[in-house]
Amino acid sequence: MQIHIPDNPQYRELGAYIQDVKHQKGPLIKVLHKAQSIFGYLPREVQYFVARELNITESSVYGVVTFYNFFSTKPKGENEINVCLGTACYVRGADKVLSMLEDELEISNGETTKDNIFSLNTARCFGACGLAPAVMINEEVYGHVDRKKIKKMLSEYRTKEE
Amino acid sequence: MATVPKLDVLICGGASCISNHSHDIKDKIFEELKKNGIEDEVRVIETGCMGPCELGPVMLVYPDKVFYQRLKPSDIETIVSDHFVKGRPVEEKVLVSETTRAIIEKGQQDTDFFKKQTKVVLSNCGRIDPENIEEYISENGYAALGSVLTSSTPDEVVETIKKSGLRGRGGGGFPTGRKWEFVKNTTNDQKYVVCNADEGDPGAFMDRSVLEGDPHCIIEGMSIAAYTVGANKGYVYIRAEYPLAIKRLEHAIEEAREYGFLGENIFETDFSFDLEIRIGAGAFVCGEETALIASIEGERGNPRPRPPFPAISGLWGKPTLLNNVETYANIRHIILKGWEWYASIGTETSKGTKVFALSGKIKNTGLIEVPMGTTLRELIFDIGGGVPDGKKFKAVQLGGPSGGCVPEEYLDTPIDYETLIELGAMMGSGGVIVMDEDTCMVNTARFFLDFTKSESCGKCVPCRVGLVQLHALLDKIVKGNGELEDLDKLEKLCYSVKKTSLCGLGQTAPNPVLSTLRYFKDEYLEHIQDHRCRAKVCTNLVTYTIVEDACRSCGICAKNCPVDCISGEKGVPYVINQDICISCGTCYDVCPFDAITTES
Fold it and tell me: Which residue of A has its CA nearest to B296?
């Protein structure tokens, strides 16, 4: 199947980056980090582009993309919620925090809300164990989370969107 | 001429304090200093983690050594005007001694949290600005590298490290000096040194704190290692979840290049060395050394059989020295103070200190460092302050998903590599998670298996299939459908997975099951025979009821119940229909009057 790569600034930026790091040893993961930061996720055509530019097979790109939790092949919501499921958070009730968020957002773990405002994911310990149970929205960490805090957090982001 | 500052204000810039908005505190201080016209008299420094994360955001003021805790931006106006201007510390925000209730003025050492600690690896963390190489240099930074390059042969360095007794801090505890010797003695024109900063164990944030608080000590440790084994290129593999650590290390590498500590002809010798950061992408198995190497090479992080060990054939098939962050952080201290000093700390088989991250059901959550041989009881009760809210201690989990849970009766065991293995746990990277009576041990075992089964890379059958089966058996017990023979099956399967898995992940993943079966078999039996979960965690085994006297008929429980099994009206206590209730626990969480009780 021939995949058409549009000539747009995003692909141009990625292409330039690949030319920069191509000579380094083992650059694939680096390139995928960059690609995800540009596109937000890694759809098939981006994977195809990376494979073509690095002169490797598409299957080896796909293999790496699906191996690592950090890479996503599905688009994410505007705000990414990550619930820490590390041990310290678990001991302090992280599983409940996750089900509260699923309740409030009416989606399951790994999904994105219909209005595209939030996607919900879990993470393995972001090292904020002192604040357990912790939730991260984008880059911001929220500690000692309970139902009240969840409602407040979500409504803050919802008003930002409006 | 610039004025010499009268006060040094150290604000903790560790991950926990930043999450608690320490940057707002810092901004507010600058604002107030300006308002009072004393910007030149006070120097504000953002440091790495100071340790007591529970008290964050924290701030230490020198030379008075006054330690402020739980700061809010609204406290700053008074602190600046009373303390910084008039010299009177604001007592209500200052840390007081737990025993004498006196204000800590002579320095942090007076509190129980700090008293029992010995800081070697963390000596600079929380004391210097991690983004300023000059501060590191003023603490004897790069002196160890200088002395090694100009006056020691690689053989002498290996001897020193061997005699110091330092063992790998990543968990395995392999003697560091011997590892260095292997790589040194392998002949090849290209060798590599690698730092494993893929701190994947949940509940562990030691390496993160060192990288964030004292990044130069890793660069120096790796440079000394590179000189010793004959490498000219190094890689630091950091997990993507640690953006601040990545940023500070990148900055430190830049500074080290500018000052000539990295690059060509370092200290005007023939030694050249440079470092590159490689960022992980969220795979726990990449903490395993052969998987980590595959990941640096840009591949899927699949482990491969050993031998050959990385010392013979590692990164791109070349001899590679791989150590963990904390191991490298120890090196400069051993070189500067001598192996005799280092070997005098610790136990017969485990020398030096160990950094631990205390978390879970413990009062003083935080980052600490103690000599090897300290007992678990000292760690948890003296330094950690014990279990909060008057709850009873149940177990301590050590070594992450590869480790085990140790019960109360073994708390007086001195910590070293061997004693922890005997107890069915392991040193691991140093995460210490305390569990109280509200933690169900069967559920905990399932939690760890849930983790390891999803993190298994899938290359070998015992781990890929065995962990799924172990998880299924535990799930069956947690849901109240367990049978007695499941316990035998569990144990047998644990041993087969351990014996036949390819890498450390599979070989250690059954440990949480084995250790809970060993120490908490009665809880497994209760789940199976009596359909009871004493911690009231396993929801299928818990019934929820509303206490009539406590119910104020607000109706919040009924509104939130997902299966509409709660009914009632104003003035009459609400009732749960047990036939419909799915024991989800939502009503229990939302009740503002704690009127819902749990039974099992």
Answer: A26
Nearest CA in chain A to B241: A126
Q: Are residues B178 and B325 in the same domain?
A: yes
Burial (Cβ within 10 Å: 0-12, 13-18, ≥19) of residue B86: exposed
Give B489 or B67, the one with higher predicted confidence.
Answer: B489
Which value does ipTM take for this structure? 0.89
Structural domains in chain A (count): 2
- The minimum CA-CA distance between B101 and chain A, rounded to whole Å, is 24
Q: Do residue A69 and residue B53 have CB atoms under 8 angstroms apart?
A: no
pLDDT in tens, A99-117: 889 989 999 998 999 999 9
Q: Percent of chain B scored above 90 by pLDDT?
A: 75
Beta strands per DSSP E along B264-391: 274-279, 320-324, 353-360, 366-371
Interface with chain A: mutation pick from B55, B199, B241, highest number of A CBs within 10 Å: B241
Q: How confident is the model at residue B3 (pLDDT cuts 50, 70, 90)?
A: low
> How big is the A-B interface in CB pairs under 8 Å?
152
Alpha-carbon torsion angle A12, A14, A17, A23, nearest 10: -110
Identity of residue B381:
F
Sign of CA dihedral B75, B76, B81, B82: positive
Q: How many domains does chain B have?
A: 5
Q: Give tens-digit pLDDT for B453-477.
A: 999 999 999 999 999 999 999 999 9
Which has the closest alpha carbon to A88: A145, A150, A152, A154?
A145
Contact A29 B447 (CB under 8 A): no
Contacts of B197 in chain A (CB under 8 A): none
Residues B161 and B177 in one domain: yes
Bridge-based pairing state of the strands B233-238 and B274-279:
parallel
Of the partner residues A70, A128, A142, the one whose CB lies closest to the CB of residue B282: A70
**B300–A92 C-beta distance less than 8 A:** no
Indicate which CATH number applies to the domain containing B588. Answer: 3.30.70.20
* Mutation site, B433, B439, B440, interface A, largest A CB count within 10 A: B433
Among A27, A29, A141, select the one facing B19 at the smallest CB separation.
Answer: A141
**Model confidence at B108: pLDDT above 60:** no
Domain boundary, last residue among A39, A67, A95 = A67
Q: Mutation test of the interface with chain B: which of A124, A140, A151, choosing the one with the most B Cβ atoms within 10 A? A: A124
Q: Which chain A residue lies closest to B401 (C-alpha atoms)? A: A87
Q: Is residue A2 part of a domain?
A: no
Per-residue pLDDT for B1 more than 70? Answer: no
Q: Does residue A144 share a domain with residue A84?
A: yes
Token representation of residue B23: 């940057």
> pLDDT confidence of B106, banded at 50, 70, 90?
very low
Structural domain range at position B392: 353-436
pLDDT at A44 over 60: yes
Q: Does A72 reside within a domain?
A: no
CA angle B292, B293, B295 (to 5 degrees): 65
Share of chain B above pLDDT 70, in %: 97
CB neighbourhood size of B346 (10 A): 24
Domain with A20, as residue range(s), is: 9-67
Closest CB to B279 among A33, A92, A126: A33
- Contact list in A for residue B448 (CB cut-off 8 A) is 87
